[in-house]
Amino acid sequence: MPDTVGRMMEILLVEDSLVDACATIGALRHSQVKHRLTLVRDGEEAILFLQREGRFARAPRPDLVLLDLHLPKRDGFEVLTDMRADEHLQTIPVVVLTASNDEADRTRSQLLDVDCDNYLTKPVNLDKFVEVVRQMKHYWFTDLILAKAAV
User: Fold this and answer.
1) 73 with 96: CB under 8 angstroms?
2) Which of 17, 28, 119, 139 lies 20 to 30 Å from 150 when distance is taken between CA atoms?
3) Do 50 and 12 contact (CB within 8 A), yes or no?
4) CA-wise closest residue to 40 among 26, 51, 32
5) Are 13 and 24 in contact (CB under 8 A)?
6) Could you read off the pLDDT of 18-55 as tens digits, one per residue?
7) Is 0.90 surpassed by the pTM of this model?
8) What distances in angstroms separate CA 77 from CA 1, 81, 82, 83, 151, one per listed residue?
């Protein structure tokens, strides 16, 4: 956990479709969860952001990743696999947002042992999406992120 108290939830949206990104951003706005969102458009950018490399060297650590599976350069499965293999990233909750209704995609993520925290198909039902985001918010107990205990 970061040392700051009272900061907004950091959300990383990994989505190559601007239409879907706008819909997700609108749904987040509707959820009234206090957040700051960063959008990256492919899997390669997502990994650079998460590992704070290159132009993302000063990127915030996300509290939640909203991840499309079918991305250019590196797909969402590769991003998820890399996240779950990295001890600094493996605890970040991931919600997969995909246009694929294919059960094979869900099964593939489970077989790779890179289970995501939730899986929603696009077009995302607004009410269901808002509920998932609120559940993720409750993961932190409130809109506020608590500071580390003093040593």
Assistant:
1) no
2) 139
3) yes
4) 51
5) yes
6) 988 888 888 888 777 788 999 999 999 999 999 999 99
7) no
8) 26, 6, 9, 10, 38
